[in-house]
UniProtKB/TrEMBL annotation:
This is Acetyltransferase (GNAT) domain-containing protein. Signal peptide: none annotated. Coiled coil: none annotated. One of its GO terms (molecular function) is acyltransferase activity, transferring groups other than amino-acyl groups. Pfam families: Acetyltransf_9. It comes from Acetanaerobacterium elongatum. Keywords: Acyltransferase, Transferase.
Length: 281
């Protein structure tokens, strides 16, 4: 058995990783790769035997901005072990390898833990951090509806529009913003969010909204968050956000959001914040 990392171009290992991810978490890694969206920022660290991935911990290298200050970070995800090999310390070995690689290179390492393994990550120095979700109160924001249509990421023209706006459009203003995130956003687009992409041609704005939750938006016209709230105001009283707005003069309601965030470093993250929904893995 050997530890192999960063092998997305190796068909045998990538397909084995994808099969394990599909079985463990129902993740569509191979679909992501075949669509051309898996780039060098997602780096699997795997224990491999006879061409088969037995266990994995992936490092997502990201850049972010918090309160206007740039930071570098690694988001850990896809932590999994084949059922036949659990309890052998494979995840711990891989976690140590990732931490040894990145601990001194980035400002922060973080992850979102499954409820079944909350006691695992503190062994490596991770500490739990509380997140807060915002809700914009719409009572004093006049509705300004615009016509829109639902995009289909499988249509070339729609895909080109999505790629244009997430790379060059103005994103929702966020207190905490992951800036190198297009690969992960496109993963979500082809794995569950395809029906949640709205395009508003009048304001050249792409909106990610699912079950009334504003996950994010990207605007070619520089639409403000208040403008987006007016766009989405259908008399529902409040608009839940999948991110923390930088403009906190807006009428906001806050409530704790528990997605089991664990952080190593990251002392600069202060006050109430939330990693935006499309930056999670």
């Amino acid at each position: 058995m050997e530890l192999i990392k960063d092998y997305r171009l190796n068909d045998t290992l990538r397909l084995s990783l994808g099969a394990l991810a599909k079985e463990t978490f129902s993740l569509g890694l191979e679909e992501w790769y075949q669509a051309g969206f898996w780039n060098e920022s997602y780096i699997p660290y795997s224990l491999v035997e006879d061409g088969t991935v037995l266990a994995n911990v992936s490092a997502n290298t990201v850049s972010m901005i918090f309160d206007g200050k740039p930071m570098t970070a690694v988001l850990i995800g896809t932590v999994m072990t084949d059922k036949a090999h659990r309890g052998k310390g494979y995840s711990a070995r891989l976690m140590n390898a990732v931490l040894e690689e990145y601990r001194k290179k980035v400002d922060m390492i973080y992850l979102f833990a499954n409820t079944s393994v909350l006691s695992f990550y503190p062994r490596f120095g991770f500490v739990p951090r509380e997140e807060w979700q915002c809700f914009i109160q719409l009572t004093d924001i006049a509705p300004k509806p615009e016509p829109f249509y639902i995009l289909d990421i499988h249509r070339p023209d729609d895909l080109a529009l999505v790629q244009r706006l997430i790379t060059s459009g103005k994103p929702a203003d966020k207190r905490l913003r992951v800036t190198s995130n297009s690969s992960l956003i496109l993963y979500y687009c082809i794995n569950g969010l395809n029906g949640a992409l709205r395009y508003y041609p009048n304001s050249d704005t792409l909106v990610f909204i699912e079950d009334g939750l504003l996950l994010d938006y990207y605007s070619g016209s520089g639409l403000s968050l208040q403008g987006a709230a007016a766009l989405l105001n259908e008399g529902q009283g409040e608009l839940p956000l999948g991110f923390t707005p930088s403009d906190q003069t807006l009428p906001l309601r806050w409530q704790p959001y528990d997605d089991h965030l664990f952080v190593l470093g990251g002392e600069a993250l202060t006050g109430r914040f939330m990693f935006h929904s499309l930056s999670r893995a």
